[in-house]
Specification:
Layout: E1 7-11, H1 15-27, E2 31-35, H2 38-45, E3 52-56, H3 64-74, E4 80-84, H4 89-97, E5 102-105, H5 110-123, H6 143-156, E6 162-165, H7 172-182, E7 190-194, H8 200-208, H9 225-228, E8 233-237, H10 244-256, E9 258-259, E10 268-269, E11 273-278, H11 282-287, H12 293-299, E12 302-305, H13 316-330, E13 337-338, H14 340-348, H15 354-368, E14 373-374, H16 376-387, H17 393-411, H18 416-423, H19 427-436
Parallel strand pairs: 1-2, 1-3, 3-4, 4-5, 6-11, 6-12, 7-8, 8-11, 13-14
Antiparallel strand pairs: 9-10
Amino acid sequence: MKYAQAHILLVDDDASLLKLLGMRLESRGFKVTTAGSGREALNRLETARPDLVLSDLRMDEMDGMALFGELQKRQPGMPVILLTAHGSIPDAVSATRQGVFSFLTKPIDKDELFAAIDEALAQAPPVKEGDDAWRAGIITRSPQMEQILEQARMVAASDVSVLVTGPSGSGKELMAKAIHNASPRASKPFVAINCGALPEQLLESELFGHAKGSFTGAVSAHQGLFQAADGGTLFLDEIGDMPLALQVKLLRALQERQIRPLGSTTSIAIDVRIISATHRNLDKAMHDGDFREDLYYRLNVVNLKLPALRERAEDVPLLAKYLINQAAARHKPFVKGFSPEALNLLASSAWPGNVRQLVNVVEQCVALTSSSMIPEALVSQALAAEENALPSFSEARAGFERSYLIKVLKITEGNVTQAARIAGRNRTDFYKLLGRHDLEPGVFKPGAEQGPPDF
């Protein structure tokens, strides 16, 4: 049993069956709360939130479907399994269309029951205690992520700089927000900027501000993000893409706790915590001369490395359930979830685009479905569409650079001097480009066993 310590609310108006089922569940390690009616079950919710509700369908006063309706109002997303001695196909179809997770017929097969409980708990958002609101944006039950979150909570109490690393789309900004929310600065601004999305002068102006007339188009003074985040947290996303000249100015600002707006002669004191993130290998960037070593150590006091989604596959059903509830609420409220086959396909996919790709797949499925439960075929279609999707500008540029470098190295048979001349770059810059794309000139020389693939 994967979730044997979960809390189950068991509801049945048959006292003997309630006792028997409760003993069976407790024997498997579940924490069990019992209720003899739907009304009593709702009262139990006021003192403790279970992870799952297991209820009889046929009960006096409030039956299982009425109880399910009330649960959805009070605890949206709470998984519910219904039991009945009068099971029928119409009842099961109606229940699952309305969002009931599973529908089992008495007498209950214990293996079927425990399998259904495990599947339901795999999709259920983990119960958060009151002091866990800081991390509410991060949906996980992965031990690896829980360990990282515990480290994040501990480091949040201090004011040290944090570098969040991990593949693109793995949730680095969400982690930065969680650290901010858990810190003494939580009541102050959290300000984020992507350092790779702006040209150098504009990025400098956005970070430090500028004085009126400092450059063409600066018709008025502009307050930078350091000032906007005063007292709070400034999140520098894709810090590895920051130009070297700007890295010098950032380092000086962090050392002196002062900034000087572009075109100004006056320094301004700042009180800002820095959290930065990158998907790049900064150790390699330092070695290649693309990232300042002194800035690296200033930013990387604590490093939190986020795993790829494929490394936390147990979170895929959980995230899919959370995301589909959000997407359905915005677009199609009749959509209740994924079929078991669809969830299995989601969980077994590679997710090269990580959580961001999962978001896109869920959004596509909700947009295209006409049924309450999304089938496996629609998930397969959405995954195929993702594979053929137009890449981002950064991805397209990186792909072009690599293809271009391979082509000139093939033309020059691995002669870096000639290749750099064709590319219009000096040898140092050309070697940096090769390092960025993990290309070795030697494999292109005559007699080399194999060159890299053409992509």
